[in-house]
Design goal:
alpha+beta, DNA-binding transcription factor activity, Tscrpt_reg_IclR_C, Beta-Lactamase, 6-stranded antiparallel sheet, DNA-binding, Arc Repressor Mutant, subunit A, 2 domains, globular
Length: 262
Amino acid sequence: MADAGLVQKTLRVLQTVAASPNGIGLSGVARLTEIPKATCHRILLALAAEDWVVLNEDTKRFHMSLSVLLMLSPTSDRDTALSYVNRLLEALATQAMETCGLDQPIKGTNTVMVLAQTASPHNIGLGRRAVPRMQPAWSTSTGKVFLSLGDPEAVRQELEADALFRDSPRGRDLDGFLEELAESAERGYASSRDELEPGAASVACPVRVNGAVPYAIWVGGPTYRLTPERVPEIAGLLRHTAHDIERVLARTPPGTQLGPAL
C-alpha cells in the first residue's frame, strides 16, 4: 500500500471506532470501511500499540482509549469517565489550592505527556501551558513515579544511554537519582523541586489500572507555597484522588479504561 493510501485507511478505521461508543469488532470495522479484514487488523493492532484504541479482550471489541479522549475532548459529557476524571482533578485543585494534572509515560522514551491539567485557585501559580505537552521524566514528579516502578538496572541503562539526561544536573549524580527513585517506590509517591524549572515544585502518585500504572496524577505550585513540610499532606490528597480515579475507571465500559502504558 502507498503511504497516502495507508494514512487514508488508518483514518477511516479510527473514525469508525470513534463513531462506535459501545465498541466495534474487527468484522464490523472491515464491513463499514470496506477495507480488507487483514488490513483492518494490522491497522487496529498498530493503533492499539500506540494507545489510540483499546481492545476489550472479553468482547473482542475496539474502543477509543481514554488517553485520546483526554487529549481531544477535555470537556466531554459529564456522564463519561473523562468528565469524572476532570471533576476529580478540579476537586483536588481546590483541596490542595494548587495546580494539578494527569500524565502518562511515552513508550520507548524518558518522557511524560501531560494529558489534563486544572489551574490553581490562586492568582499566582504554575504558568499556564498548553495541554497536551511533553516533559522529561527525570525532572518531573510523575516521571519519577514511572521510573521508580521499573527494574532499577534497566532504568540505569536507559538513563545512561540518554544524552539529554547525562547532560542534565541529575545525570551528574546517577547513583543519587536512583536512590531517590527507590525511596519514591517505597513510600508510594515522588516529588520534584527546582528541577523542571526554578521555583517550581510538584508531588505525584501512581494511578493503578489492572495491575499496571499507565497514569500518574500530580499537584504542583511555587516552591514558597508547596514547601517540603506540605509534601506528606499533598501526597495524602493525591492517594485519595488516585483511588477515586481507579474506581471510576473500574466501573466504566472497557473501552474507556486505560490500556498498557505508552
